[in-house]
UniProtKB/TrEMBL annotation, chain A:
Residues where [2Fe-2S] cluster binds: C222, C225, C237
CDD domains: DHOD_e_trans_like1
UniProt remark on cofactor binding: Binds 1 [2Fe-2S] cluster per subunit.
Family annotation (InterPro entries): Cyt_c3_hydrogenase_gsu, Dihydroorotate_DH_Fe-S-bd, FAD-bd_FR_type, FNR_nucleotide-bd, OxRdtase_FAD/NAD-bd, PyrK_electron_transfer, Riboflavin_synthase-like_b-brl
Record has Metal-binding as a keyword: yes
Keywords assigned by UniProt, alphabetized: 2Fe-2S, Iron, Iron-sulfur, Metal-binding
Any one Pfam family match given in the protein's UniProt record, by short name: DHODB_Fe-S_bind
This protein's name: Ferredoxin-NADP+ reductase subunit alpha
UniProt key word Repressor: no
GO MF entries: 2 iron, 2 sulfur cluster binding; flavin adenine dinucleotide binding; metal ion binding; oxidoreductase activity
Domain FAD-binding FR-type: 1-96
UniProt source species: Desulfosarcina ovata subsp. ovata
PANTHER family reported for this sequence: DIHYDROOROTATE DEHYDROGENASE B (NAD(+)), ELECTRON TRANSFER SUBUNIT, DIHYDROOROTATE DEHYDROGENASE B (NAD(+)), ELECTRON TRANSFER SUBUNIT-RELATED
From TrEMBL, chain B:
GO molecular function, one term: oxidoreductase activity
Protein's UniProt name: Glutamate synthase (NADPH), homotetrameric
Start-end of Basic residues biased regions: 1-11
Residue ranges of every copy of the Dihydroprymidine dehydrogenase domain listed in the record: 24-134
Length: 278, 470
């Protein structure tokens, strides 16, 4: 069992942080890599990109939003409980390079994934501007951590309840207008990453995105996570999860994420009914 | 024994009872139900106890077949299973999934005039008998040598190496990337051909012998080969299989409803998705299911789809019946369960609706031309033969390749042009010192028993190395 040593309910109680004992993974993990977690015997395998690792303590941190049965089940796990299986680190680490001016854009729980990458980009000497967004103020996570991890932080909310009123792309556009941006890293919901990639394409600024397709094994043996990048089929679990945002077929990814929407809906509703009853 | 002698070789082979096709096609219970004690002894009595047994030469791990069959005939089942264990640690698996017709039974002298002795059925019987009635007493083990061996991958070849080396007194750790050990035995071969409880018990047998099994260990990611050496392992065996699915590379292949057989079977077998929503992993349930390919994996996929309630299941294969690589028995079982065969047919593109869900595929009829390098007649498209086939679920079972995850992290190991590991066919030695490899990662996708045979040779070579040096 992989024990939970710290648990925090962030943002309206629907975004949960778990710090988990996994010394082998903590020792090896690099920014951009993910793990696969399975809560119990009958559970499914869910991929989550690590928000942090602590090699000395032997722990990894994940942050997830409750969106379905499995994440609802994860939410019931308290400190001292654990996951039956945690597998990783998986995927390729982020390619880190000193480039100069870099903009990191995060949306929703994507900010958690962006955090270690932003920190690493700054540590190697980049001038990092960070733009994070959420639907509303209550859903904004890791503001102070992101501030510490970057040279400049800008915050936006869709409803204007905090920071800039509007989408991250509005703020990004201003940054791009200033010129000299060498790299944009965008991690968040697929429509956000698509919008960022479309914007940066017109400025010809290289853009990295981290994709989140459906996965089973996470080791390249099934192809469930296949995505089209530059017209070629890639497996996000071994070839990614990060790709050149200008090459990704986002519409296909959004479509494929809907593969099990009926099954997922029923499963989640049944679980919630059962939980309410107890 | 004298009155039985007259029967030897002349009596008809005893077929194993099995569930009726109409019943079994909708459940996941094992198809053949096994011999009774009386049936096993009757079948065992058909063995001629040859002085130079051809059957043994046909067995890649050289089980003393007349020896254990003789003990079954005498009613000494405890003795029989212990006799098998000296050569084969996985008899309950082998009795079920080996292609005996081209191995041991293919060389049985009784089979020259009549039907061969049912060696596989007898091996299965005695392994099942031991599990259900046995004392649990373990075979003897050599004194501890203090040498540590890591086995990467817990499929048939890895488990064979582990079983051999633990009995020779070495300390063995098996490292598995999935959350359950067994490799293709748990994620690939379905419950109705090989119950997972039986695989778990065979692995448990190895653990009782002292093998340490670690799951969730992805070699190449969680730990590298060089780090394993740093941890004190003196030899490493790689039995990681050929787990990279091949696709057809046709337009529309990423539509929802097109899965690799690896994904489909992993969901069904390892994740038990056939029990969804009692378990959390879903699996697509098609009405008109098409399986592309005609190997054992294709048969397993088609029969699984039928059990998940498909209205019809079609095997679509570009060559003819003669070239189908699946075992005759598997093809026969599939046909009995109502699976249709569309031979000399090849898809050209997949068609979906506005939601990106598969609705059909375009196919071409084929004819066979001259034999190719593999000796099989090459299929050639017939011009103007295009036709449409309705389907909402396509399972691609056209083979698999070498997964580069481990080999990419080990640049100092020689690979062939297809990415498989180069290993000496006699010893399993790779070009990296202290590392052996065998099974599908060396040969490409083959059979369970060939992987076990490779494991046996490598285990002998590793033992020699640990005793005498490289």
């Amino acid at each position: 069992m992989f024990k939970i040593v710290k648990r925090e309910e962030m943002a309206e109680g629907t975004v949960i942080l778990n710090e988990i004992e996994a010394p082998l993974i903590a020792n090896k993990a690099k920014p951009g890599q993910f793990v696969i977690l399975k809560a119990n015997e009958d559970g499914e395998r869910i991929p989550l990109t690590m928000a942090d690792t602590d090699a000395e303590k032997g722990t990894i941190t994940i942050i997830y939003m409750v969106v379905g049965k499995s994440t609802a089940l994860f939410k019931t796990l308290q400190v001292g409980d654990g996951f039956q299986d945690v597998i990783g680190p998986l995927g390729k680490p982020t390619h880190l390079e000193k480039l100069g001016k870099v903009v990191c854009v995060g949306g929703g729980t994507g900010v958690a994934v962006l955090h270690p990458i932003t920190r690493a980009l700054k540590e190697i000497g980049n001038d990092v501007t960070c733009i994070i967004g959420a639907r509303t103020k209550d859903l904004l996570i890791l503001e102070s951590q992101m501030k510490a991890a970057s040279n400049e932080l800008k915050v936006c909310t869709d409803d204007g309840s905090y920071g800039h009123h509007g989408f991250v792309t509005d703020v990004l556009k201003e940054a791009l207008e200033g010129g000299d941006v060498k790299l944009v890293v965008a991690i968040g919901p697929v429509p956000m990453m698509k919008a960022v990639a479309n914007l940066t394409r017109s400025y010809d600024v290289k853009t990295l995105v981290s994709l989140n397709p459906i996965m089973i094994d996470g080791t390249g043996m099934c192809g469930g996570c296949r995505v089209t990048v530059g017209g070629k089929t890639k497996f996000a679990c071994v070839d990614g999860p990060e790709f050149d945002g200008h090459q990704v077929n986002f519409d296909e990814l959004m479509m494929r994420l809907q593969a099990y929407c009926e099954e997922e809906k029923h499963c989640y509703e049944d679980f919630c009914t059962l939980q309410d009853a107890t | 024994m004298t009155e039985k002698k007259g029967k030897k070789g002349k009596a008809a082979r005893l077929a194993m009872p099995e569930q009726a096709p109409e019943v079994r096609k909708r459940n996941f219970k094992e198809v053949p139900t096994g011999y009774t004690v009386a049936m096993a002894q009757e079948e065992a009595a058909r063995c001629l106890q040859c002085k130079k047994p051809g059957c043994m030469e046909g067995c890649p791990v050289s089980v003393d077949i007349p020896g254990f069959i003789g003990l079954i005939a005498e009613g000494d089942f405890t003795g029989a299973i212990r006799h098998i264990w000296t050569k084969n640690a996985l008899p309950a698996v082998c009795g079920r999934v080996c292609p005996q017709e081209s191995q041991c039974e293919g060389r049985c002298i009784v089979g020259k005039k009549g039907e061969p002795v049912a060696i596989g059925n007898l091996e299965r019987f005695v392994a099942d008998w031991e599990r259900e009635n046995g004392t649990g007493e373990l075979p003897p083990k050599a004194p501890a040598t203090g040498k540590k061996v890591a086995v990467v991958g817990s499929g048939p070849s890895g488990l064979t190496v582990a079983g051999d080396l633990i009995q020779k007194g070495h300390s063995v750790t098996v490292l598995e990337a999935f959350h359950k050990p067994g490799g293709v035995l748990v994620y690939g071969i379905p419950e109705f051909r090989l119950p997972k409880a039986i695989v778990a018990q065979e692995v448990n047998f190895l653990e009782r012998l002292g093998v340490n099994v670690e799951v969730n260990a992805v070699i190449g990611r969680t730990v590298s080969l060089d780090e394993l050496f740093e941890q004190g392992y003196e030899a490493i065996y790689l039995g990681v299989g050929a787990g990279l699915p091949r696709f057809m590379n046709l337009p529309g292949e990423n539509l929802i409803g097109i899965l690799s057989a690896n994904e489909y079977l992993t969901r069904a077998n390892l994740m038990k998705a056939y029990r969804f929503p009692d378990v959390d992993t879903p699996i697509p349930k098609g009405k008109n299911v098409v399986v592309l390919g005609a190997g054992n994996v294709a048969m397993d996929s088609a029969r699984t789809a039928m059990r998940l309630g498909a209205e019809n299941v079609k095997i679509v294969y570009r060559r003819s019946r003669e070239e189908m690589p699946a075992r005759a028995a598997e093809i026969h079982h599939a046909e009995e369960e109502g699976i249709e065969f569309f031979l000399l047919t090849n898809p050209t593109r997949f068609i979906g609706n506005e939601k990106g869900r598969l609705t059909g595929m375009e196919c071409l009829r084929m004819e066979l031309g001259e034999p190719d390098d593999s000796g099989r007649r090459r299929p050639i498209a017939i011009e103007g033969s295009e036709f449409h086939m309705d389907t909402d679920l396509v399972i691609v079972a056209v083979g698999s390749g070498a997964n580069p995850l481990l080999t990419q992290s080990t640049p100092d190991m020689g690979l062939n042009k297809w990415g498989y590991i180069e290993a000496d066919p006699e010893t399993g030695k790779t070009t990296k010192k202290g590392v052996w490899a065998g099974g599908d990662i060396v040969t490409g996708a083959a059979t369970v028993i060939l992987a076990m045979g490779a494991g046996r040779k490598a285990a002998d070579s590793i033992h020699q190395y640990l005793t005498w040096g490289w």
